[in-house]
Design a protein that fits this description.
By secondary structure, the chain is α+β, with helices and mostly antiparallel strands. 43% of the residues lie in helices and 16% in strands. The protein has helices spanning 63-72, 86-98, 102-115, 125-146, 150-161; strands at 7-10, 14-22, 35-40, 46-50, 57-58. Helix 3 (102-115) packs across helix 4 (125-146) and helix 4 (125-146) crosses helix 5. The radius of gyration is 17 Å and the shape is globular. It starts with 6 loop residues before the first strand and ends with a helix. The relative contact order is 0.15.
Length: 165
């Protein structure tokens, strides 16, 4: 169980501070169910998560793990949808985001960028949305654990995803 003052990575919210653990006022019907009161580091939103949640909740990387993660990103393979129809693209990238790991987020980012390198046409709204979500989640964690700005985390991530650069 996480304690107040600790950081966690929660599902699609990215890096969050555990502000409190307890029963929220709005949960009068379930006095025995405790929640994590989380504060997202990116937009400062408050998130209430049951301590027995089945959604992904994990400790963030250590600074050493983050550096090793960045060092290994050039080797992450690209994973493109089998077809370019909207349904296949949506399902492919939704699956990647549903894994909720740093590797899957990085692979989604790298794959979308690869698919549209030098392309004259714009990426689909789905791909743009996936790209923004994955970058926000990953950069929030890197920013927090490496004590750098979101912009610097985004630049480090971009450089690390390009091998031999």
């Amino acid at each position: 169980m996480y304690q107040a003052g600790e950081y966690v990575v929660y599902a699609d919210s990215g890096l969050c501070l555990v502000e409190q653990v307890g029963v929220p006022d709005f949960n009068a019907g379930e006095k025995d169910r405790t929640y994590y009161f989380l504060r997202a580091t990116t937009d400062r939103s408050r998130i209430y998560v049951p301590t027995d949640t089945q959604l992904p909740l994990r400790p963030p990387m250590t600074p050493q793990e983050a550096e090793a993660f960045l060092d290994g990103l050039g080797d992450i393979p690209v994973s493109l949808p089998e077809r370019r129809d909207r349904k296949t693209v949506v399902l492919h990238y939704q699956h990647m985001l549903s894994i909720h790991t740093t590797q899957a987020l990085a692979q989604a980012i790298k794959s979308i960028r690869f698919a549209h390198r030098g392309a004259a046409g714009r990426m689909s709204g789905t791909e743009e949305s996936v790209l923004r979500r994955a970058e926000k989640q990953l950069c929030s964690e890197l920013s927090g654990v490496l004590n750098i700005s979101m912009e610097d985390a985004g630049e480090r991530l971009s450089r690390a995803l390009i091998p031999n650069a």
